[in-house]
Structure formats: structure tokens, C-alpha cells
Amino acid sequence: MSAMGSATAIVGMGRAMAMKGEGDPKTPLQLGAVAARQAMAAAGIGRHEVGALFTGRTPQSYMVLQYNQSLLNELKIGPTFSSEMTSHGGGALGTLQLAATALQAGVIDYALCVTNEASGIWMDQVGSNAAWEGDLQFEAPYGPSTPSIYAQSICRYMHEYGITPEMAAHVAVENRRWALDHPHAVMRHKGPITIEQVVTSRLVATPLRLLDCAVWYPGGIATAVVLTRADLARARHGETTWLAGFGQCNTHEWVGERMGGWGYAPFEDGPDLVQTGAGVAAKQAYAMAGLTPADIDLAESSAPFSYVNLMMLEELGFCPRGEGGNFAAGGGIAYDGGLPFNTIGGYLSFGQVAQGLYNLQEVVDQLHGRAEGRQIPDAKAGIVHMHGGPLACHSVVILSKEPVA
Amino acid sequence: MTAPAPPDFPGDWSRGVPLMAGDWFIGLYQPSPETVGYWEALTRRELVLKYSPAAGRYYHPKRIVCTETGSDALEWRRASGRGTIYSFSEVHRAPSPAFAASVPYTVGIVALEEGVHLFTRLIANPGPIAIGAPVTVDFRVLEGGVLLPVFLVGAAA
User: What sequence ranges are listed for the domain ChsH2 C-terminal OB-fold (chain B) (predicted)?
Assistant: First the structure.
């Protein structure tokens, strides 16, 4: 465990949501501002105490330069340290890492991290997202859909490790099972699904079928977090959730450009669509926390496709490389008795909001016994993985109910 | 970098059309200065790559700086046009109306003989499209109305 492990705590959180077609449509800024004030109120800090403001990247549905400025303008705060964390979907969670770094450097006492998106309300994401995920010169002209871009990694993954559609389908089935218990999971009302249904659903982009894919969340979500140092957390705050450890790794932009030898570890072996920065980020996080995967009670991944969840189970250390398929097929993530994995339903059945950090809120709720109807008994530590790019930027945070000694 | 572009190719595959994601403008006209040589070569039906004389290796056409040496003295060199399939996906749900009439079609990554990987369209000729299958470059006007390098797969390639 390093000095950064369990040195920073979450002392307040806020969340705002809006669903498409329900009530007045909301912008990400509206949701973010509300969530921020909730988090400040929960932490019991005033506007003058917000030392740092960090936001995820500019929401796709609120395209301004310097989104963090829009937010601080609305909140009427004057942080002495402020930035967007722009590493795609990984940046939303990366804000916590930036906060911890600033707090432990002693330049601030409190950090406010806000991440929000409402593209499900304002945008056609199926029609627009591929243009964000692909290189405009060297990829987009060939007509790749977002699934077909991720499928480049998946095709190699199947080829190299003998992964089958049935193995991947276990992720979809288990994600759906968890979603049935979650009040905000978008696929909750669709009922359970079977392996057979997954592997016979219609093709989207080989090998991906409809039920292998994330569903875009038809709404907006904002999550805000107030963090502070251990001494202040203990002296001044009630409920605390500890950043036991964290890590991050950002490797490329565009799927074609990631190929080609790096020349240094761990990517020195050259072209590889399967090995991602998630493994690097997870190793950092475990080392900082002084924990191993065996210590983790629940895991939440932002992987938007069934097969990619198998890859991330490997990268997060829950099974050896190439064993994700056997792990899932053998009950490793079974709702009954397996690792509680994607307990919100995952991106496949909760729905995907690239920013919004719903999965972070879930781990905090689980650690403090608030996950009504899906509570994991005696949960002490959970791991959150956010990514974007696709598979280019990875951020991992391990949260614990108590500081890890 | 100064080869004259034919009248039907303004050096800009977007043809001056703003690149949109839904209602959002998301990018400047293409190509960018570091890639214009690639697009000019395409008008001659040539596939070119960046080459670093200092390191003696090829790079993706986007590369600006040689990873090994740090040199920005990269040259354009013509590629053999031969390689193998590294990965692929057959698209059944098009990303936009422009591609809807073409489904299913296959996008993939080829490993060129020069050691560079390119994202591309794979066309069975006659196939089958599979990892490791040999491919040969061809040039086709795809759905966007732009001449692009594609790769033919199979014995007839």
C-alpha cells in the first residue's frame, strides 16, 4: 500500500436524473448543477470551501469549451484548481484521481467532482456515436458502426483464446438478472433473458448480436462527489467512503492507430487489440490499496459489449488472461454465488451513459447498505472501471467502507 | 506534398462537407497537412505509408514523429499493397443512412507487409474473410463518394 492508499475519502455525493419523454427535458448542466449542490449539502460544505472543481469531459449534449467553467459559473464558486478530465469515458472516474492527487499534495482541502451526460435526451446516439469513436480520415469513410469498432478487439480475442458466443452470452444473462433488481435499470421491465435468446438475437456487427450490446440510456444522469483528506474526513464528516486505491492508463486514439510496437512494458510486444490499459490501471489500484482481487466484494465495469466484459474481468484480475470466457461460463459472475459483477445491470441492461458515474454511486450504496433489493451482504470493498476511446482510456478506483490498514 | 489533385479530387475526402455527428459539427475539413500526401497518392491509385529513414521502418499514414528516434523527417513510400487480415467485423446495422444500402459489409484491420496496420473495407474476392487470410489492395469509390483503398480477400485477389 502506498501513501496515497486510503488517504482520501468521499464525504458527500449527489445525483440528478431525467428520463427522455418524462417531464421537461434537462440539459447536462442542469443535472450537474443540481447534483453538485446535493453533494455539497451532503458533505456539509459551503461554496467557499470548494477548493477544486473537476468535471468529466464536455458532455456530448452540451458542447461548450471548458465545461468546468460553465459549471463553476452556475455554482458561483471560485476553486483554486479546476479542470476537465478529458480522457473519454475514463475521465469521469479520473476526476476522483485528480482530486486525490490535489488533496494529498496539500493544495486544497475539498474537491468537487461532477460528471454528467444527457445525450439520451437530446441526441440520436446510434446515428452519431460512430463519428465520435472512429478516426474521421482513416476509419469513418469505411462505414464502421460503434459495435464494429469494438468488434475488432473482440474478433481477435475470440481468435486468440477460443472465446465462444455462448461464453459471452453469460454476461448478458447475468447483467439482465441484476437489472431486474435495480429501480433505474432501463431493461428492468424486459424480464430475464436466456443464453439461447442472446446467441440468436439479430446480428448488429459480427460477432455482436443485439443482446451482446449496451443499450443507450434513454435519459440523463449526473453524479457529483465531494472528497477530502483523511484527517478532515474523520474530524468533520459522518459517512465516509475511502479511495483505497486508484489507477489509470491511456494508450491510444482510434483503433487503427493503437497498432504498432510501443517498445516498452507492458505493451512492448507490439500490435495487440486485446491487451488494454485496464490491466495497468487495475494493477496500480490494487498495489496502492494493498488489496488483491480476492478482497473485492463487487465490481462494476463500463464495458459496453458482452465480450468486452470478459476481457475486463481478466484485466481487473478476477481470472487469468484468456480465461474470461471459462470464468463466466463456469458461474464466475453468476447472480447466485458468483462475483457480484455489474450489479446495476451493466451497460448492457442498466444502459450506457458515458459520463454520469452511476456505477460509482452503486458501489458507495452497496458499501453502506443502501442497495435496496440487491444488497450484497457485508460488502467492504468494490472496484469501479470506466473507459472510453474505445478501449483507449481506462480508469480504475477501488472503494472501501473502512480505510485499508 | 505538392502533387496537383485531379479536378474530381479536391484533396479533401469530405468535399468541403462539414463532418456532422447528428446535429453537431465535429471536425475540420480533411485531410490534415500530415496526411495530404496519402490522399494525393490515392488519386494515382497508389497506397503510400510514412517511412522513417532513421529507424528504417514504416508507419501509419497519420504518424508525425518516428516513435523510435523522435525524428519528424518522415517520407512517403509506396506500399506493396499486400498483407493479411488482422481482425474484422461484418456490419449488419449501418451507422448512418449513407451506408444502409450496403449492409452487410465488412470493416477490418489489415496487417501490411511493411508492418503497418490499416483500418479498411474488406471485400470477399471470393473470400473467405478470416483472420490471417491474404489480402491485396484495390481502390474503390465507397458510399461517401470518395476513392479509398480497400482490400480484396481470396484467391482471385
Answer: 76-140
